[in-house]
Amino acid sequence: MKRTTIMAACLLSFSVIMSACSNDEANKAKQDHSTTYTTNSGDIRETTKSIDHLPKFLNNFEEDMAVLYQQAAKHKDLLEYIPCYCGCGESANHQNNYDCFVHETRKDGSIVWDDHATKCGVCLEIAAESIASYEQGKSVKEIRQMIDEKYKEGYAKPTPTKPL
Hints:
- Helix content is 49%, strand content 10%.
- It is of the alpha+beta class.
- It has two domains: 1-36; 39-151, no CATH class.
- A four-stranded antiparallel β-sheet has the order 1-2-4-3.
- Keywords: Signal.
- Residues 1-20 form the signal peptide.
């Protein structure tokens, strides 16, 4: 009789532990689902708690992509004044090159990342050129002029980026 009681207690404990694990996994799935979504234009947006936490969609790419995404996020004050010439102003309602990487920077420090740039060489090239030029000491105005001049022909209409 005693042995049966111990077995029943063990099974009950195991059942409770497994149930808790299943609930944790379900809760994590709900959390992930609520922080990741796909836009009408097909871009994935993912929220992380800060600029230091990159989105999971970057796990499918080389480290260089993650580095550029983090640099883009850190250069918001620059890239918000740099237009993108890939056509995302019309297709994804982007306003500037920053939007190709980050949809929103929230007051609490969390970031809503956008995977648009992972699929677009123009977005990546404009950001990389702009950041490199900025780090070499060029002004935002000089960089804007350089990008506008380079991409004015043979590329899509630029995003409606705010003037300097």
